[in-house]
Amino acid sequence: xxxxxxxxxxxxAIVIVAAIAAIYLETRPNTSAIDVSLKAQVNGPQxxxxxxxVIFPITLTNYGGSAFRDLGVGxxxxxxxxxxxxxxxxxxxxxxxxFTEEFKYPGTFKVSFTADPSGLFPIENRSAATSxxxxxxxxxxxxxxxxxxxxxxxxxxxxxxxxxxxxxxSYLRDTYNISAFxxxxxxxxxxxFEPLLNLTYNYTHSIYTAxxxxxxxxxxxxxxxxxxxxxxxxxWAKGLESMNKNISYTFxxxxxxxxxxxxxxxxTTICSWYSGGWIKSLAYEGQKGCDAVLNDTGSSIATxxxxxxxxxxxxxxxxxxxxxxxxxxxxxxxxxxxxxxxISEQDGAPGSACFGLVYNISNVSYCSTYTTxxxxxxxxxxxxxxxxxxxxxxxxxxxLTVLALVNASLLPYQTQENVALLQSFNAIGxxxxxVSGISSTCSFNTSLSCxxxxxxxxxxxxxxxxxxxxxxxxxxxxxxxxxxxxxxxxNAVIPASSNYTVKIPCYDNGAxxxxxxxxxxxxxxxxxxxxxxxxxxxxxxxVV
Length: 544
Description:
By secondary structure, this protein is mainly beta.
Protein backbone atom coordinates (compact mmCIF):
# COMPACT_ATOMS: atom_id res chain seq x y z
CA UNK A 1 0.00 0.00 0.00
CA UNK A 2 1.47 3.34 -1.01
CA UNK A 3 1.60 6.38 1.23
CA UNK A 4 -1.39 8.07 -0.43
CA UNK A 5 -3.67 5.07 0.09
CA UNK A 6 -2.50 4.71 3.68
CA UNK A 7 -3.43 8.32 4.47
CA UNK A 8 -6.81 7.85 2.75
CA UNK A 9 -7.66 4.92 5.02
CA UNK A 10 -6.47 6.83 8.09
CA UNK A 11 -8.82 9.73 7.23
CA UNK A 12 -11.76 7.30 6.75
CA ALA A 13 -11.06 5.67 10.10
CA ILE A 14 -10.93 9.05 11.85
CA VAL A 15 -14.31 10.00 10.35
CA ILE A 16 -15.90 6.71 11.48
CA VAL A 17 -14.52 7.03 15.01
CA ALA A 18 -15.73 10.63 15.22
CA ALA A 19 -19.24 9.63 14.12
CA ILE A 20 -19.40 6.84 16.68
CA ALA A 21 -18.17 9.19 19.38
CA ALA A 22 -20.78 11.78 18.45
CA ILE A 23 -23.58 9.21 18.70
CA TYR A 24 -22.28 7.96 22.04
CA LEU A 25 -21.91 11.42 23.47
CA GLU A 26 -25.43 12.27 22.34
CA THR A 27 -27.12 9.24 23.96
CA ARG A 28 -24.84 8.14 26.81
CA PRO A 29 -26.14 8.50 30.38
CA ASN A 30 -25.25 11.96 31.57
CA THR A 31 -22.82 11.97 34.45
CA SER A 32 -23.78 15.55 35.26
CA ALA A 33 -27.11 16.55 36.80
CA ILE A 34 -30.21 15.92 34.65
CA ASP A 35 -32.82 18.67 34.53
CA VAL A 36 -36.06 16.74 33.88
CA SER A 37 -39.70 17.53 34.57
CA LEU A 38 -42.56 15.01 34.86
CA LYS A 39 -46.23 16.04 34.82
CA ALA A 40 -49.26 13.72 34.83
CA GLN A 41 -52.98 14.42 34.63
CA VAL A 42 -56.29 12.59 34.10
CA ASN A 43 -57.92 12.38 30.69
CA GLY A 44 -61.52 12.20 31.92
CA PRO A 45 -63.36 12.41 35.27
CA GLN A 46 -61.56 11.59 38.51
CA UNK A 47 -64.75 10.19 40.07
CA UNK A 48 -65.64 6.97 38.27
CA UNK A 49 -67.36 3.59 38.78
CA UNK A 50 -65.85 0.07 38.72
CA UNK A 51 -64.64 -1.32 35.38
CA UNK A 52 -64.22 2.11 33.87
CA UNK A 53 -60.83 2.92 32.38
CA VAL A 54 -58.85 6.08 33.03
CA ILE A 55 -56.12 7.46 30.75
CA PHE A 56 -53.22 9.29 32.42
CA PRO A 57 -51.07 11.35 29.99
CA ILE A 58 -47.53 11.50 31.43
CA THR A 59 -45.42 14.30 29.96
CA LEU A 60 -41.65 14.08 30.41
CA THR A 61 -39.45 17.06 29.43
CA ASN A 62 -35.65 17.18 29.17
CA TYR A 63 -34.56 20.74 30.09
CA GLY A 64 -30.91 19.75 30.32
CA GLY A 65 -28.05 20.54 28.00
CA SER A 66 -27.55 16.98 26.79
CA ALA A 67 -29.59 13.88 25.93
CA PHE A 68 -30.36 11.03 28.30
CA ARG A 69 -31.04 7.42 27.45
CA ASP A 70 -33.24 4.73 29.11
CA LEU A 71 -34.46 6.89 31.97
CA GLY A 72 -36.94 4.83 33.98
CA VAL A 73 -40.47 6.08 34.70
CA GLY A 74 -42.47 4.17 37.32
CA UNK A 75 -46.24 4.19 37.84
CA UNK A 76 -47.43 3.40 41.38
CA UNK A 77 -50.99 2.76 42.55
CA UNK A 78 -51.34 3.16 46.32
CA UNK A 79 -47.59 2.71 46.59
CA UNK A 80 -47.38 -0.48 44.50
CA UNK A 81 -45.38 -0.45 41.28
CA UNK A 82 -47.87 -1.15 38.47
CA UNK A 83 -46.06 -0.19 35.27
CA UNK A 84 -42.56 0.90 34.21
CA UNK A 85 -41.28 2.62 31.08
CA UNK A 86 -37.83 3.47 29.67
CA UNK A 87 -37.51 6.87 28.02
CA UNK A 88 -34.74 8.29 25.81
CA UNK A 89 -34.90 12.04 25.09
CA UNK A 90 -32.66 14.50 23.24
CA UNK A 91 -31.95 17.79 24.96
CA UNK A 92 -34.79 20.35 25.08
CA UNK A 93 -37.40 17.78 23.97
CA UNK A 94 -40.63 16.37 25.45
CA UNK A 95 -42.56 13.13 25.10
CA UNK A 96 -45.95 11.93 26.37
CA UNK A 97 -46.79 8.43 27.60
CA UNK A 98 -50.45 7.41 27.95
CA PHE A 99 -50.90 5.06 30.91
CA THR A 100 -54.35 3.37 31.05
CA GLU A 101 -55.79 1.62 34.08
CA GLU A 102 -59.14 -0.12 34.65
CA PHE A 103 -60.28 0.17 38.26
CA LYS A 104 -62.37 -2.87 39.22
CA TYR A 105 -63.23 -2.09 42.83
CA PRO A 106 -64.64 0.89 44.75
CA GLY A 107 -62.17 2.94 46.79
CA THR A 108 -59.73 5.84 46.71
CA PHE A 109 -56.58 5.28 44.66
CA LYS A 110 -53.47 7.46 44.63
CA VAL A 111 -51.74 7.11 41.27
CA SER A 112 -48.20 8.50 41.36
CA PHE A 113 -45.56 8.81 38.65
CA THR A 114 -41.81 9.02 39.31
CA ALA A 115 -38.89 9.52 36.95
CA ASP A 116 -35.88 7.34 37.81
CA PRO A 117 -37.56 5.56 40.77
CA SER A 118 -34.43 3.42 41.30
CA GLY A 119 -32.14 6.47 41.67
CA LEU A 120 -29.76 5.50 38.86
CA PHE A 121 -29.49 8.99 37.33
CA PRO A 122 -28.32 12.27 38.92
CA ILE A 123 -31.70 14.04 38.79
CA GLU A 124 -31.19 17.74 39.58
CA ASN A 125 -34.64 18.34 41.12
CA ARG A 126 -36.46 15.12 42.08
CA SER A 127 -39.56 16.91 43.30
CA ALA A 128 -40.09 18.18 39.75
CA ALA A 129 -39.69 14.61 38.47
CA THR A 130 -42.71 13.28 40.35
CA SER A 131 -46.46 13.76 39.99
CA UNK A 132 -49.58 12.25 41.58
CA UNK A 133 -53.33 12.06 40.91
CA UNK A 134 -56.16 10.77 43.13
CA UNK A 135 -58.94 8.67 41.63
CA UNK A 136 -62.17 7.95 43.51
CA UNK A 137 -63.98 4.78 42.37
CA UNK A 138 -67.55 5.01 43.62
CA UNK A 139 -69.71 2.08 44.69
CA UNK A 140 -72.09 1.27 41.85
CA UNK A 141 -75.81 0.92 42.46
CA UNK A 142 -76.95 -2.62 43.26
CA UNK A 143 -78.34 -4.13 40.02
CA UNK A 144 -82.14 -4.06 39.92
CA UNK A 145 -83.36 -3.96 36.30
CA UNK A 146 -86.83 -5.19 37.28
CA UNK A 147 -87.34 -2.01 39.30
CA UNK A 148 -87.96 -0.22 35.99
CA UNK A 149 -90.71 -2.62 34.87
CA UNK A 150 -94.39 -1.77 35.37
CA UNK A 151 -96.31 -3.81 37.90
CA UNK A 152 -98.76 -6.58 37.05
CA UNK A 153 -96.63 -8.93 34.99
CA UNK A 154 -97.99 -12.25 33.75
CA UNK A 155 -94.62 -13.87 33.19
CA UNK A 156 -91.13 -12.67 33.93
CA UNK A 157 -87.51 -13.45 33.27
CA UNK A 158 -84.41 -12.20 35.08
CA UNK A 159 -80.87 -12.82 33.91
CA UNK A 160 -77.28 -11.98 34.68
CA UNK A 161 -74.38 -12.52 32.29
CA UNK A 162 -70.87 -11.25 31.81
CA UNK A 163 -69.60 -10.31 28.36
CA UNK A 164 -68.33 -13.84 27.61
CA UNK A 165 -71.64 -15.24 28.81
CA UNK A 166 -73.53 -12.91 26.49
CA UNK A 167 -71.48 -14.02 23.47
CA UNK A 168 -71.96 -17.70 24.39
CA UNK A 169 -75.70 -17.32 24.92
CA SER A 170 -76.01 -15.31 21.72
CA TYR A 171 -74.16 -17.97 19.73
CA LEU A 172 -76.30 -20.80 21.13
CA ARG A 173 -79.50 -18.83 20.62
CA ASP A 174 -78.78 -17.85 17.02
CA THR A 175 -77.11 -21.08 15.87
CA TYR A 176 -79.25 -23.68 17.59
CA ASN A 177 -82.45 -21.74 18.35
CA ILE A 178 -82.35 -22.62 22.04
CA SER A 179 -85.38 -20.86 23.53
CA ALA A 180 -83.90 -20.73 27.05
CA PHE A 181 -81.48 -18.10 25.76
CA UNK A 182 -84.15 -15.76 24.43
CA UNK A 183 -83.15 -12.14 24.99
CA UNK A 184 -85.87 -9.49 25.20
CA UNK A 185 -88.79 -11.39 23.70
CA UNK A 186 -89.30 -8.52 21.20
CA UNK A 187 -87.61 -8.96 17.78
CA UNK A 188 -87.19 -5.22 17.12
CA UNK A 189 -85.60 -4.70 20.55
CA UNK A 190 -83.27 -7.66 19.98
CA UNK A 191 -82.31 -6.12 16.64
CA UNK A 192 -81.37 -2.90 18.44
CA PHE A 193 -79.44 -4.20 21.46
CA GLU A 194 -77.73 -7.37 20.20
CA PRO A 195 -75.55 -5.68 17.54
CA LEU A 196 -74.69 -2.96 20.07
CA LEU A 197 -73.60 -5.55 22.65
CA ASN A 198 -71.64 -7.45 20.00
CA LEU A 199 -69.72 -4.29 19.12
CA THR A 200 -69.08 -3.24 22.72
CA TYR A 201 -68.13 -6.71 24.02
CA ASN A 202 -64.62 -5.64 25.02
CA TYR A 203 -65.96 -2.68 27.01
CA THR A 204 -68.70 -4.56 28.89
CA HIS A 205 -68.37 -6.35 32.20
CA SER A 206 -71.88 -7.20 33.48
CA ILE A 207 -75.33 -7.30 31.90
CA TYR A 208 -78.48 -7.64 34.01
CA THR A 209 -81.88 -7.92 32.36
CA ALA A 210 -85.51 -8.37 33.37
CA UNK A 211 -88.54 -8.74 31.18
CA UNK A 212 -92.26 -9.18 31.65
CA UNK A 213 -95.35 -9.76 29.54
CA UNK A 214 -98.75 -8.22 30.18
CA UNK A 215 -102.20 -8.78 28.66
CA UNK A 216 -101.59 -6.14 25.96
CA UNK A 217 -97.93 -5.20 26.29
CA UNK A 218 -94.35 -6.37 26.86
CA UNK A 219 -91.49 -4.70 28.72
CA UNK A 220 -87.76 -5.33 28.84
CA UNK A 221 -85.21 -3.69 31.15
CA UNK A 222 -81.43 -3.97 30.71
CA UNK A 223 -78.59 -2.57 32.84
CA UNK A 224 -75.05 -2.58 31.40
CA UNK A 225 -71.90 -2.06 33.45
CA UNK A 226 -68.42 -1.51 32.06
CA UNK A 227 -66.20 1.07 30.44
CA UNK A 228 -69.10 2.56 28.49
CA UNK A 229 -70.74 5.61 30.00
CA UNK A 230 -73.04 8.38 28.93
CA UNK A 231 -75.26 8.46 25.90
CA UNK A 232 -74.09 5.36 24.00
CA UNK A 233 -77.71 4.52 23.12
CA UNK A 234 -78.15 7.87 21.35
CA UNK A 235 -74.90 7.34 19.43
CA TRP A 236 -76.09 3.90 18.33
CA ALA A 237 -79.57 5.16 17.40
CA LYS A 238 -78.06 8.00 15.37
CA GLY A 239 -75.96 5.51 13.43
CA LEU A 240 -78.96 3.30 12.70
CA GLU A 241 -81.07 6.33 11.75
CA SER A 242 -78.43 7.41 9.24
CA MET A 243 -78.68 3.95 7.66
CA ASN A 244 -82.44 4.40 7.10
CA LYS A 245 -83.32 1.74 9.65
CA ASN A 246 -86.75 3.29 10.37
CA ILE A 247 -85.47 4.46 13.76
CA SER A 248 -85.74 7.90 15.33
CA TYR A 249 -84.72 9.31 18.68
CA THR A 250 -85.28 12.35 20.87
CA PHE A 251 -84.13 13.62 24.25
CA UNK A 252 -86.44 14.07 27.20
CA UNK A 253 -86.19 14.78 30.91
CA UNK A 254 -88.49 12.52 32.95
CA UNK A 255 -88.22 12.54 36.73
CA UNK A 256 -84.69 13.94 36.63
CA UNK A 257 -83.55 11.37 34.07
CA UNK A 258 -81.88 12.74 30.94
CA UNK A 259 -83.54 10.23 28.64
CA UNK A 260 -82.76 9.17 25.12
CA UNK A 261 -86.09 8.01 23.70
CA UNK A 262 -85.72 5.72 20.67
CA UNK A 263 -88.76 4.90 18.52
CA UNK A 264 -88.54 1.57 16.68
CA UNK A 265 -92.05 1.59 15.18
CA UNK A 266 -95.06 -0.66 15.77
CA UNK A 267 -95.59 0.81 19.21
CA THR A 268 -92.10 -0.03 20.50
CA THR A 269 -89.95 2.56 22.25
CA ILE A 270 -86.70 2.41 24.22
CA CYS A 271 -85.76 4.84 26.98
CA SER A 272 -82.10 4.94 27.98
CA TRP A 273 -80.14 6.89 30.61
CA TYR A 274 -76.95 6.63 32.69
CA SER A 275 -76.88 6.62 36.48
CA GLY A 276 -75.29 4.81 39.39
CA GLY A 277 -72.55 3.28 37.24
CA TRP A 278 -75.00 1.65 34.80
CA ILE A 279 -76.33 2.32 31.33
CA LYS A 280 -80.02 1.64 31.94
CA SER A 281 -82.68 1.06 29.29
CA LEU A 282 -86.37 0.24 29.32
CA ALA A 283 -88.03 -1.09 26.17
CA TYR A 284 -91.83 -1.10 26.01
CA GLU A 285 -94.15 -2.50 23.36
CA GLY A 286 -97.70 -1.32 23.86
CA GLN A 287 -99.99 1.69 23.70
CA LYS A 288 -97.81 3.81 26.00
CA GLY A 289 -94.36 5.16 25.33
CA CYS A 290 -91.48 4.05 27.52
CA ASP A 291 -91.17 7.57 28.98
CA ALA A 292 -94.77 7.42 30.20
CA VAL A 293 -94.25 3.89 31.55
CA LEU A 294 -91.31 5.04 33.68
CA ASN A 295 -93.77 7.04 35.78
CA ASP A 296 -95.52 3.76 36.65
CA THR A 297 -92.59 1.54 37.68
CA GLY A 298 -91.82 -0.35 40.85
CA SER A 299 -92.47 -3.91 39.79
CA SER A 300 -93.38 -6.58 42.30
CA ILE A 301 -90.84 -8.88 40.66
CA ALA A 302 -88.26 -10.12 43.17
CA THR A 303 -85.09 -9.68 41.13
CA UNK A 304 -82.14 -12.03 40.94
CA UNK A 305 -83.97 -15.14 42.12
CA UNK A 306 -81.11 -17.22 40.79
CA UNK A 307 -80.90 -20.83 41.90
CA UNK A 308 -77.37 -21.94 41.06
CA UNK A 309 -76.59 -25.67 40.93
CA UNK A 310 -73.06 -26.07 42.24
CA UNK A 311 -70.51 -27.18 39.65
CA UNK A 312 -67.03 -27.94 40.90
CA UNK A 313 -64.24 -25.67 39.60
CA UNK A 314 -66.61 -23.71 37.36
CA UNK A 315 -66.68 -20.07 36.34
CA UNK A 316 -70.14 -18.50 36.00
CA UNK A 317 -70.88 -17.02 32.58
CA UNK A 318 -74.63 -16.42 32.78
CA UNK A 319 -77.59 -17.05 35.03
CA UNK A 320 -81.32 -16.69 34.51
CA UNK A 321 -84.68 -17.42 36.05
CA UNK A 322 -88.06 -17.63 34.36
CA UNK A 323 -91.39 -17.66 36.18
CA UNK A 324 -94.83 -18.41 34.78
CA UNK A 325 -98.18 -19.40 36.24
CA UNK A 326 -97.14 -23.06 35.95
CA UNK A 327 -93.88 -22.73 37.88
CA UNK A 328 -90.34 -21.43 37.59
CA UNK A 329 -87.12 -22.48 35.91
CA UNK A 330 -83.55 -21.40 36.57
CA UNK A 331 -80.55 -21.84 34.32
CA UNK A 332 -76.80 -21.52 34.68
CA UNK A 333 -74.20 -21.25 31.91
CA UNK A 334 -70.72 -22.07 33.21
CA UNK A 335 -67.17 -22.62 32.04
CA UNK A 336 -65.77 -25.93 33.30
CA UNK A 337 -62.43 -27.49 32.34
CA UNK A 338 -62.29 -25.83 28.92
CA UNK A 339 -65.95 -26.72 28.37
CA UNK A 340 -69.22 -24.79 28.37
CA UNK A 341 -72.04 -26.38 30.39
CA UNK A 342 -75.64 -25.18 30.66
CA ILE A 343 -77.88 -26.53 33.42
CA SER A 344 -81.52 -25.61 33.91
CA GLU A 345 -83.72 -26.61 36.81
CA GLN A 346 -87.50 -26.88 36.60
CA ASP A 347 -89.38 -26.62 39.89
CA GLY A 348 -92.33 -28.86 40.66
CA ALA A 349 -91.58 -31.55 38.07
CA PRO A 350 -91.35 -35.23 39.04
CA GLY A 351 -88.06 -37.00 38.42
CA SER A 352 -85.02 -35.47 36.75
CA ALA A 353 -83.35 -35.54 33.38
CA CYS A 354 -79.84 -35.71 32.02
CA PHE A 355 -78.51 -34.10 28.88
CA GLY A 356 -75.06 -34.24 27.31
CA LEU A 357 -72.91 -36.22 24.90
CA VAL A 358 -74.36 -39.51 23.69
CA TYR A 359 -72.48 -42.80 23.67
CA ASN A 360 -74.09 -45.61 21.74
CA ILE A 361 -72.67 -48.84 23.17
CA SER A 362 -74.40 -52.18 22.61
CA ASN A 363 -77.52 -50.32 21.44
CA VAL A 364 -77.73 -48.42 24.76
CA SER A 365 -77.36 -44.63 24.79
CA TYR A 366 -75.42 -42.94 27.56
CA CYS A 367 -74.95 -39.35 28.61
CA SER A 368 -71.70 -37.59 29.51
CA THR A 369 -73.49 -35.10 31.76
CA TYR A 370 -75.97 -36.35 34.31
CA THR A 371 -77.69 -35.60 37.61
CA THR A 372 -78.19 -37.33 40.91
CA UNK A 373 -81.29 -37.07 43.05
CA UNK A 374 -81.98 -33.71 44.64
CA UNK A 375 -80.17 -30.61 43.49
CA UNK A 376 -76.64 -32.03 43.27
CA UNK A 377 -75.29 -31.93 39.75
CA UNK A 378 -72.50 -34.13 38.46
CA UNK A 379 -70.85 -32.89 35.30
CA UNK A 380 -68.60 -35.10 33.18
CA UNK A 381 -66.81 -33.22 30.41
CA UNK A 382 -63.55 -33.46 28.49
CA UNK A 383 -61.07 -30.81 27.49
CA UNK A 384 -61.78 -28.65 24.46
CA UNK A 385 -64.82 -26.97 22.97
CA UNK A 386 -67.51 -28.87 21.11
CA UNK A 387 -71.29 -29.10 21.15
CA UNK A 388 -73.35 -32.22 22.00
CA UNK A 389 -76.84 -32.85 23.37
CA UNK A 390 -78.75 -35.89 24.67
CA UNK A 391 -81.43 -36.81 27.18
CA UNK A 392 -81.48 -39.61 29.73
CA UNK A 393 -84.00 -40.34 32.46
CA UNK A 394 -82.65 -40.31 36.00
CA UNK A 395 -83.69 -40.40 39.65
CA UNK A 396 -84.62 -37.38 41.70
CA UNK A 397 -87.45 -34.99 42.46
CA UNK A 398 -86.48 -32.16 40.15
CA UNK A 399 -86.35 -31.95 36.39
CA LEU A 400 -82.85 -30.84 35.42
CA THR A 401 -81.78 -30.16 31.87
CA VAL A 402 -78.10 -30.05 30.93
CA LEU A 403 -76.56 -28.94 27.66
CA ALA A 404 -72.85 -29.72 27.45
CA LEU A 405 -70.31 -28.23 25.06
CA VAL A 406 -67.14 -30.30 25.08
CA ASN A 407 -64.54 -31.79 22.78
CA ALA A 408 -65.28 -35.31 21.61
CA SER A 409 -61.70 -36.23 20.68
CA LEU A 410 -60.96 -37.68 24.13
CA LEU A 411 -64.34 -39.30 24.71
CA PRO A 412 -63.33 -42.88 23.75
CA TYR A 413 -60.93 -42.89 26.71
CA GLN A 414 -63.62 -41.72 29.10
CA THR A 415 -66.62 -43.68 27.87
CA GLN A 416 -66.33 -46.69 30.14
CA GLU A 417 -65.80 -44.50 33.20
CA ASN A 418 -68.90 -42.48 32.39
CA VAL A 419 -70.94 -45.60 31.69
CA ALA A 420 -69.97 -47.07 35.08
CA LEU A 421 -70.91 -43.86 36.86
CA LEU A 422 -74.21 -43.62 35.04
CA GLN A 423 -75.03 -47.20 35.95
CA SER A 424 -74.23 -46.53 39.58
CA PHE A 425 -76.80 -43.73 39.58
CA ASN A 426 -79.32 -45.79 37.59
CA ALA A 427 -79.30 -43.02 34.98
CA ILE A 428 -79.39 -45.07 31.76
CA GLY A 429 -82.04 -44.28 29.18
CA UNK A 430 -82.59 -43.21 25.59
CA UNK A 431 -80.46 -40.53 23.94
CA UNK A 432 -81.28 -37.76 21.52
CA UNK A 433 -78.94 -36.98 18.63
CA UNK A 434 -77.25 -33.62 18.33
CA VAL A 435 -76.04 -33.36 14.74
CA SER A 436 -73.00 -31.35 13.67
CA GLY A 437 -72.78 -29.59 10.36
CA ILE A 438 -72.43 -25.82 10.68
CA SER A 439 -70.38 -25.63 7.48
CA SER A 440 -69.47 -29.24 6.68
CA THR A 441 -68.33 -30.38 3.20
CA CYS A 442 -67.51 -33.63 1.42
CA SER A 443 -66.25 -34.68 -2.01
CA PHE A 444 -65.35 -37.71 -4.17
CA ASN A 445 -63.33 -38.01 -7.36
CA THR A 446 -66.29 -39.58 -9.19
CA SER A 447 -69.37 -38.47 -11.06
CA LEU A 448 -71.31 -38.69 -7.79
CA SER A 449 -71.73 -35.30 -6.15
CA CYS A 450 -71.44 -35.40 -2.35
CA UNK A 451 -72.85 -32.75 0.00
CA UNK A 452 -74.38 -32.00 3.44
CA UNK A 453 -72.30 -34.35 5.63
CA UNK A 454 -73.25 -34.51 9.32
CA UNK A 455 -71.81 -36.63 12.13
CA UNK A 456 -73.93 -37.87 15.05
CA UNK A 457 -73.65 -40.86 17.38
CA UNK A 458 -70.64 -42.11 15.44
CA UNK A 459 -72.48 -42.16 12.09
CA UNK A 460 -71.76 -39.97 9.07
CA UNK A 461 -74.78 -39.01 6.96
CA UNK A 462 -74.22 -37.71 3.41
CA UNK A 463 -76.27 -37.07 0.28
CA UNK A 464 -75.20 -38.12 -3.19
CA UNK A 465 -76.39 -37.01 -6.60
CA UNK A 466 -75.81 -39.29 -9.60
CA UNK A 467 -74.74 -37.10 -12.52
CA UNK A 468 -74.26 -40.08 -14.85
CA UNK A 469 -76.75 -41.26 -17.47
CA UNK A 470 -76.80 -44.74 -15.96
CA UNK A 471 -77.49 -46.39 -12.62
CA UNK A 472 -74.79 -46.54 -9.94
CA UNK A 473 -74.78 -49.45 -7.47
CA UNK A 474 -72.86 -48.60 -4.29
CA UNK A 475 -71.85 -51.82 -2.53
CA UNK A 476 -69.83 -50.55 0.47
CA UNK A 477 -68.24 -47.48 2.02
CA UNK A 478 -65.40 -46.79 4.43
CA UNK A 479 -65.05 -43.88 6.87
CA UNK A 480 -62.06 -43.30 9.16
CA UNK A 481 -60.32 -40.36 10.84
CA UNK A 482 -57.00 -42.17 11.27
CA UNK A 483 -55.66 -45.70 11.43
CA UNK A 484 -57.53 -48.75 10.22
CA UNK A 485 -61.20 -48.28 9.41
CA UNK A 486 -63.95 -50.71 8.43
CA UNK A 487 -66.00 -51.11 5.28
CA UNK A 488 -69.74 -50.91 5.77
CA UNK A 489 -72.18 -52.63 3.42
CA UNK A 490 -74.41 -50.04 1.74
CA ASN A 491 -76.11 -51.86 -1.17
CA ALA A 492 -77.58 -48.64 -2.57
CA VAL A 493 -79.05 -48.29 -6.04
CA ILE A 494 -78.87 -44.71 -7.34
CA PRO A 495 -80.68 -44.18 -10.66
CA ALA A 496 -79.40 -41.61 -13.15
CA SER A 497 -80.01 -37.97 -12.15
CA SER A 498 -81.23 -39.02 -8.69
CA ASN A 499 -80.37 -38.30 -5.05
CA TYR A 500 -79.58 -40.84 -2.38
CA THR A 501 -78.81 -40.39 1.35
CA VAL A 502 -76.38 -42.81 2.97
CA LYS A 503 -75.56 -43.29 6.66
CA ILE A 504 -72.35 -45.11 7.60
CA PRO A 505 -70.34 -45.55 10.83
CA CYS A 506 -66.98 -43.77 11.19
CA TYR A 507 -63.92 -45.05 13.04
CA ASP A 508 -60.72 -43.74 14.63
CA ASN A 509 -57.94 -46.33 14.91
CA GLY A 510 -60.55 -49.05 14.56
CA ALA A 511 -62.85 -47.66 17.30
CA UNK A 512 -66.17 -46.01 16.56
CA UNK A 513 -66.00 -42.20 16.77
CA UNK A 514 -68.27 -40.99 19.55
CA UNK A 515 -69.70 -37.54 20.05
CA UNK A 516 -69.76 -34.66 17.59
CA UNK A 517 -66.23 -33.27 17.18
CA UNK A 518 -65.52 -29.93 15.57
CA UNK A 519 -63.06 -29.50 12.74
CA UNK A 520 -62.82 -33.23 11.96
CA UNK A 521 -61.40 -34.47 8.63
CA UNK A 522 -62.61 -37.94 7.62
CA UNK A 523 -61.15 -40.23 4.97
CA UNK A 524 -63.79 -41.84 2.74
CA UNK A 525 -63.75 -44.70 0.24
CA UNK A 526 -66.54 -46.09 -1.92
CA UNK A 527 -66.89 -49.37 -3.85
CA UNK A 528 -69.49 -49.16 -6.61
CA UNK A 529 -70.56 -50.78 -9.88
CA UNK A 530 -71.49 -49.08 -13.17
CA UNK A 531 -72.48 -51.18 -16.24
CA UNK A 532 -71.10 -54.32 -14.65
CA UNK A 533 -67.67 -52.80 -13.94
CA UNK A 534 -66.25 -52.42 -10.40
CA UNK A 535 -64.83 -49.09 -9.30
CA UNK A 536 -63.28 -47.69 -6.10
CA UNK A 537 -63.39 -43.93 -5.36
CA UNK A 538 -61.50 -41.98 -2.69
CA UNK A 539 -63.00 -38.95 -0.98
CA UNK A 540 -63.04 -36.89 2.20
CA UNK A 541 -65.42 -35.08 4.51
CA UNK A 542 -64.76 -32.07 6.71
CA VAL A 543 -67.21 -31.91 9.60
CA VAL A 544 -67.60 -28.71 11.62
